[in-house]
Design a protein that fits this description.
The chain is 41% helix and 18% strand. It is built from 28 helices and 30 strands. Strand 12, helix 12 (287-300) and strand 13 (308-315) form a beta-alpha-beta unit. The radius of gyration is 31 Å and the shape is elongated. It starts with 5 loop residues before the first strand and ends with a helix. The structure holds ligand L263DTV3 and uridine-5'-diphosphate. One of its GO terms (cellular component) is cytosol.
Length: 785
């Protein structure tokens, strides 16, 4: 299949421009891992949209720079007067520290001239400028891949402009715990925008989990193992740990120029063991902590003094921000002190360079390094660790890696993991690394080299793009478009023409009265059948050509009470229990289902029920629902947020459950209990019981369903299956396998209808259960028309 063109959008272009004349420009490579990583995207036709690293105010400058950059596949975004407040302000002085658990800098509390709001306004404006440039260059079918915290509002602008655009967003930094993220005043706007993307990616499971948690707690949406579901719209959230381009490092480290550098550096270092640090000079990289740990090591290991050195490449970054100037002074202070303390006339223990270095020199340094020391206090991934591993030669070096770098999850097995805040621990790790046996170094290196070789940037990009294309293609297939208004005439006409009809009806919100008309009681869920339906439903159910199934999350007793008198099928607890009203309930719970979490969850639910007036608990055998629809809405929401924290921390931390945050409820049930997944078993039972011989030729499926239950709409979707359903058995006491020709559904005989949803897998929508009443009336009245 031809690959779509890729528009990469990131704050910075891979090159930083410098004006050398009125119409001429020179370029250097931009710093940082994002640029290094994306340079590895070779297999896509890519256009890169970003800031060229320089302010250009005149038309000639803009034109000539655009032309020169176009030759490199780059498109500049001119940020002009918003740049400072946007980049140095909101991005790097607010989002960056919050995402790395540093909190907002003190000046936001102490200096009235620095306002959060003006910087957020600049952020919005800058995202709008990015949007304008993407819009100008977008061609139908392109994939737009937005990178990082600088462009969190962009997905929303893009989707509002064209809902069919394929949009992905990837975060290169950590996503912090919701407790930290919550402090951000614009927390909801940013999350909502990111959720308009089709796919959201993170480096690690922790970051993805924090994100899901923040969406649940702050927006009150439902989070599943697949992603976030809001009003039927699913945003897939997945983990894609980034890699490097290993061949580039392996090949470079074999170049003769690099080998020459290796010899030269070894000679310069006079036989001392080399500990290397390569970091942007950023507060998150823990460089002062690194120096303190090295000082401790020298303090406690007299024998090593004069035999080991630390070379720190501190690549300049974000010079316009006060915190970055401070960290530089801090580093210089430590270096001066330590060199003064442990240096000699011929050598000092630390070489600290405030500059970036040439790529070949960097590879040479990696290759001769004995210990790479990464002490990030937080880091999205940290590519330097992988680059070091790729460049190793005969005598392997040891990686000391912060447990707070995303890389810790991928390279931890072949590294010495440390807590960078624990100076003693890092100092001990330095000693261990320097004294490590050759065999142990080989063993560790082998593990990590294998990982680095096989998890390349290209692989990372392929995985993300494939997932994004798969998601958007499936979404097109399933929904194609927003649900349509129901063609009532067709529904009725096809109904009257067909011979074996199946009607699957939800209960709550489908066959009950709309909430607004209901009397608000404080004693539980008002689950009563819509009074105008009673007679009509009877009529419908008594037609021998029609099979009616009420499929609900409600428990058996509620369905018995409301539908016991009708000739129909009842599927309680999302299909876990089934009965025809003339028979007994049968259990359809899969044998392996683990329900050990129920007591713990019930305990937490009871606690909150007692403390939230008007709330109540619905228990069933496979799920628990805490409902606060009759409570004070705001207090209920706040309680639900707290409750979720308790649940995640305790009873469900390791359980196979889905937590579904409904509009005014929290539901916990065993994984995979969805209406769609139960359908096959239900169908099997019905067919078997009725001894159906004629295929089902008409299906009407109506529901006010949660996102995870929308799989029931796609279960029968002829366009998706294109093949005849064959209800098969599952579980030991399941019905016999029924005829493979039991469902013979043409597209025009299938009507899936979601109530009150604008994003849904259903083909059609109705506004409320009042419309369902009307529809059922018409089916009864006109069925013979
Ligand atoms: O462009 P700057 O403001 O100078 O910052 C450089 C980049 O820093 C961050 O890099 C992150 O991405 C790396 C690759 O995924 C990851 O390994 C690292 O842990 C992150 O810190 C930032 O996220 C980028 O946007 C910047 O370009
Ligand atoms: O003088 C240098 C030294 C290193 N790097 C590169 O900067 C990137 C740092 O990425 P990392 O993921 O470790 O951290 P980030 O800077 O993105 O936070 C790596 O690819 C390094 O090769 C650089 O651009 N200039």
């Amino acid at each position: 299949m031809a690959r779509p063109r890729l528009l990469v959008v990131s704050m910075s272009l891979p090159v930083t421009a410098k004006r050398t004349g009125e119409e001429s420009w020179s370029f250097t490579m931009s710093p940082g891992g994002l640029v290094s990583a994306l340079l590895g995207l070779k297999e896509f036709e890519t256009k890169w949209i970003g800031w060229p690293g320089v302010d250009v105010h005149d038309a000639i400058g803009k034109k000539t720079l655009s032309i020169t950059l176009a030759e490199k596949g780059c498109i500049p975004v001119f940020l002009e007067e918003v740049c400072d407040q946007y980049y140095n302000g909101y991005c790097n002085n607010i989002l960056w520290p919050i995402f790395h658990y540093l909190g907002t800098p003190p000046e936001y509390r102490n200096d009235a001239t620095i306002t959060y709001q003006s910087q957020y306004d600049a952020y919005k404006k800058a995202n709008q400028i990015f949007f304008d440039v993407v819009k100008e260059h977008y061609e139908e079918g392109d994939v737009v891949w937005c990178h990082d915290y600088h462009v969190m509002l962009l997905p929303q602008y893009l989707k509002e402009y064209n809902s069919k655009m394929k949009v992905g967003w990837f975060l290169h930094t950590p996503f912090p715990s919701s407790e930290m993220y919550k402090t951000l005043p614009s927390r909801s706007d940013l999350l909502r925008s990111v959720l308009t993307a089709d796919l959201v990616g993170f480096h690690t499971y922790d970051f993805a989990r924090h994100f899901l948690n923040a969406c649940m707690c702050i927006l009150g949406v439902e989070a599943t193992s697949e992603g976030v579901v809001d009003q039927g719209k699913v945003t897939r959230v997945a983990v894609f740990p980034i890699g490097i381009e290993p061949e580039r490092f392996i090949n470079t480290s074999e170049l003769s120029e690099v080998v020459q550098y290796m010899k030269k550096f070894k000679n310069d270092f006079g036989g001392r063991k080399l500990i290397l640090g390569v970091d942007r000079l950023d507060t998150i990289k823990g460089i002062p902590q690194k120096y303190q740990a090295f000082e401790k090591f020298l303090e406690e290991n007299e024998d090593w003094r004069g035999k080991v050195m630390l070379l720190q490449i501190a690549v300049p970054t974000r010079n316009g921000i006060g915190e970055y100037q401070k960290i530089k002074d801090q580093c210089h202070y430590h270096v001066g002190r330590i060199n003064g303390r442990f240096g000699s006339i011929s050598a000092v223990p630390i070489i600290h360079l405030d500059c970036s270095i040439d790529f070949n020199q960097l590879c040479a340094l990696y290759a001769i390094t004995d210990v790479l020391l990464v002490t990030s206090l937080r880091d999205g991934m940290n590519l330097v660790s992988s680059e070091f591993i790729a460049c190793q030669k005969e005598e392997k070096g040891v990686l000391i890696l912060s447990e707070f770098a995303g890389a810790g999850q991928s390279l931890g097995a072949g590294a010495l993991l440390v807590n960078p805040w624990n100076i003693k621990e890092v100092s001990t790790a330095i000693g261990e690394a320097l004294n490590m046996s050759h065999e142990e170094k080989e063993r560790k290196h082998k593990i990590n080299f294998q990982y680095v070789k096989t998890h390349s940037t290209q692989q990372w990009a392929d995985d993300f793009m494939n997932k994004l294309i798969e998601i958007t293609t499936n979404a097109e297939l399933r929904t194609g478009k927003a649900p349509l208004e129901l063609p009532e005439h067709d529904v009725i006409q096809q109904y009257s023409k067909s011979n074996n009809r199946l009607l699957i009806l939800g209960f709550y919100g489908t066959l009950t009265q709309p909430m607004k008309n209901q009397e608000r009681r404080g004693d539980g869920m008002n689950l009563d059948l819509h009074p105008q339906l009673k007679e009509r439903l009877k009529e419908l159910c008594s037609d021998p050509k029609t099979t009616v199934v009420v499929l609900s999350r409600s428990e058996k007793g509620i369905l018995d009470k409301n539908f016991g008198e009708y000739n129909m099928w009842l599927a309680a607890e999302n299909g876990m229990f089934l009965r025809h009203t003339s028979g007994e309930w049968v259990t359809r719970i899969p044998e392996h289902m683990n329900l050990e979490w129920i007591d713990g969850v019930k305990h937490v639910f009871k606690y909150f029920t007692e403390r939230t007036p008007g709330s109540y608990l619905e228990t069933s055998e496979t799920s628990l629902v805490w409902n606060y629809e009759y409570s004070d809405a705001e207090f209920g929401r706040a309680q639900a947020r707290d409750m979720l924290q308790h649940l995640w921390a305790g009873p469900i931390s390791n359980a196979s459950v889905d937590v579904v945050r409904g509009d005014q409820s929290v539901e916990v049930h065993a994984v995979g209990v969805t209406k769609g997944s139960a359908m096959e078993r239900i169908l099997g039972e019905i067919v078997h019981n009725k001894s159906m011989t004629e295929p089902i030729d008409y299906v009407l499926c109506i529901g006010f369903f949660l996102g995870k239950d929308e799989d029931v709409y796609t279960f029968f979707e002829p366009e998706l299956t294109k093949k005849t359903k064959s209800p098969s058995s599952s579980g030991s006491d399941s019905p016999k396998k029924v005829s493979a020709t039991i469902v013979d559904l043409k597209g025009e005989n299938y009507f899936s209808i979601a109530i009150g949803q604008t994003h849904t897998k259903a083909r059609y929508f109705l506004d409320s259960s009042d419309d369902v009443v009307q529809l059922i009336h018409k089916l009864c009245t006109h069925k013979n028309a």
